[in-house]
Amino acid sequence: MLSAISLRSFSPQRSRFFISLRSPRKPILSLAPPTAAEEMDSPSPSCVLVLSGKSSAEMEIAKTLKSSNSLKLPDNSEVKIFVHPEIQRPPSEESFQIDLFMKSLSTNQFGRFFIWSPHLPSTHDVVSHNFGELPIGAVCTTDIQSKGRGRSKNVWESPIGCLLFSFTIQMDDGKIVPLLQYVISLAITEAIKEICDKNGLPYLDVRIKWPNDLYLNGLKVGGILCTSTYKSKKFNVSAGIGLNVDNEKPTVCLNAVLQELSVASYKFTREDMLAAFFNKFETLYDLFIHQGFQALEELYYKTWLHSGQRVIIQEKNEEQVVENVVTIQGLTPSGYLLAVGEDNQMCELHPDGNSFDFFKGLVRRKL
Question: What's the pTM value of the predicted model, to 2 decimals?
Answer without folding.
Answer: 0.85
